[in-house]
Write a structure and sequence with these properties.
single chain; 497 residues; alpha/beta; six-stranded parallel beta sheet; four-stranded mixed beta sheet; 16 helices; binds adenosine-5'-diphosphate; binds alpha-D-glucopyranose
């Protein structure tokens, strides 16, 4: 499993949650998994990484040294290999700082991907990897890479490394978590990949004159997945394919949508150490304590009033500009709203101004705060996600588990994981939340208003809460789906170079 971020080592978003949870679930199913990540300086000394090997990674300007460090995932024995090259990864951010990408991201992630390819044969040669389960030599069947940062892994598998006997049987799976981030670089930077110009074609890595790493992953991997069935269809359309819909369409018989789960131990209202009180579907009294504490923490009046929560990156994708527009009208209702998020400076400023205008109704925290994210999931009554698009979304899954009723736009994984109120109970089971169709401030407001109507009817509301809390949002089912796909991939032949 190759990822540029994974909980608990490094995180900017949901990819880290997935890469942190899926390996463990696969291990629980009896698979042998190794996770490979960059050795970011921010990881520090906390996780016991120790030098395992020194290698040289061939680069366009000559070999670049890397140290492979090794540790295990906390709480399970999945080995983690971290590629260390301090010049690239010992920085304050993962991909950039203060809203700007690092200018050498192509060098950094091409290096990382190529280091992974160099690492694989070392594992199989059994040079004392030291894992108890496998006693040394270990040959992976499959490489699973995620998003643009690791898209060169399947590309290298079929190009630079196609002739290597040790890698010949290796299948590759590429998971797209977000088509909106493609890893685009100018053609002049292309040589940094180490690839010959024969791969800089519209069939491969070229995209309207630029280098497109995500496209490379899409065209080269044996199979593709994305993080919900609805999103797997949406990325085949011009609206949400971000220009790559044709590429996905061409490979549609190799695209599978598998919805994410969440770590149900980490997100458990009955045991969550971040909460001032705990609760369960049988006894919800602690949720009230959480709500009052949250109102206090966010400097809002402690009152019995519907409380809407949001935890989100502040980006166009998440539709929070729609909320900003709808907010003044919403504030005519007797409700409170708390928002935790960070991202686009313009949106941050817009919400700061709204907080100053509605200080008794809007609680705002600009920043990244794990504990507060948990306290909002627990303390709010409703959880709002007006996303323009949402490949899967994890926060609505946590909100279901915390009895905080999601109000979501009907898109991607939100459409797949929230059963809408009022849609009749078909095979999907009882309603667990609210959906709205149009990405407009009015539709958003109407959905919140419908939710408020139902909220006023305690029995109906409790039914929604309980149905949400009883929904299985764990990784178990999804991990089995990945394992099934892996098996299917091993039965088929790898694509050749
Ligand atoms: P995305 O990956 O698109 O940002 P997801 O819903 O898949 O969206 O995952 C977001 C993850 O990041 C969740 O685990 C959420 O709790 C967390 N998160 C997002 N913003 C913040 C924040 N400001 N503070 C703490 N956690 C956050
Ligand atoms: C991306 C998507 C989000 C998804 C996450 C994990 O960041 O924006 O919808 O949940 O990846 O797959």
């Amino acid at each position: 499993m190759v990822s540029s971020e994974a909980v608990p080592f490094a995180k900017t978003g949901g990819l880290a949650d997935v890469a942190g949870a899926l390996p463990r679930e696969l291990a629980n199913l009896g698979h042998q998994v190794r996770l490979v990540i960059p050795r970011y300086g921010t990881i520090g000394d906390r996780y016991g990484f120790r030098e395992w090997k020194r290698i040289e990674v061939p680069g366009p300007a000559g070999p670049v040294p890397a140290v492979i460090e090794r540790s295990v995932m906390p709480g399970c024995d999945v080995p983690v290999l971290a590629i260390r090259h301090d010049h690239y990864f010992n920085r304050a951010g993962l991909y950039g700082e203060a809203g700007s990408d690092y200018p050498d991201n192509l060098d950094r992630f091409a290096f990382f991907c190529q280091a992974v390819m160099e690492l694989v044969p070392l594992l199989s040669r059994g040079e004392g990897e030291g894992g108890e389960a496998d006693g040394g030599g270990w040959t992976p069947d499959l490489l699973h890479a995620h998003d643009w940062q690791t898209a060169l892994v399947p590309v290298y598998r079929r190009t630079l490394y196609a002739g290597q006997p040790a890698l010949a049987k290796l299948r590759s799976l590429f998971t797209v978590h977000n088509m909106g981030y493609q890893g685009l670089f100018p053609a002049s930077a292309y040589p940094k990949t180490g690839l010959g110009w024969e791969w800089f074609t519209p069939q491969w890595l070229e995209f309207y004159g630029q280098l497109n790493l995500l496209k490379g992953g899409l065209v080269s991997a044996d199979w593709l997945t994305t993080v919900s069935p609805t999103y797997s269809r949406e990325i085949q359309t011009a609206e949400l394919g971000f220009g790559l819909e044709g590429v996905v369409l061409e490979r549609r018989d190799r695209v599978v949508g598998i919805v994410n789960g969440i770590d149900v131990d980490q997100w458990n209202p009955a045991t969550d150490p971040h909460l001032p009180a705990r609760y369960s579907p049988r006894d919800l009294s602690g949720k009230r304590t959480c709500k009052e504490a949250l109102q206090r923490e966010m400097s809002l009046p402690v009152r019995d009033v519907p409380l809407v929560g949001i935890v989100s990156r502040l980006s166009w994708q998440k539709g929070l500009d729609l909320l900003a527009e709808a907010l003044p009208a919403l504030m005519n209702r007797d409700l409170q709203l708390v928002l935790l998020g960070t991202g686009e400076p313009a949106l941050e400023a817009q919400f700061r101004a709204l907080r100053d205008r509605f200080p008794k109704q809007l609680g705002l925290r600009i920043g990244f705060d794990e504990g507060l994210a948990h306290r909002i999931e627990a303390g709010a009554d409703l959880f709002l996600m007006p996303s323009r698009y949402e490949p899967c979304g994890l926060t609505q899954l946590a909100s279901l588990r915390y009895g905080t009723v999601p109000v979501v736009r009907r898109t991607g994984g939100l459409a797949d994981t929230v059963v809408p109120y009022g849609a009749g109970t078909g095979s999907e089971g009882p309603a667990t939340g609210f959906q709205f169709q149009d990405a407009t401030p009015d539709s958003l407001r109407e959905a919140v208003e419908l939710a408020l109507l139902v909220y006023a009817d305690r029995d109906r509301w409790l039914k929604l809460i309980r149905a949400g809390m009883e929904t299985d949002v764990s990784w178990a089912k999804s991990a089995r789906a990945y394992a099934g796909l892996y098996r299917r991939m091993l039965e088929g032949k790898p694509r050749d170079g």
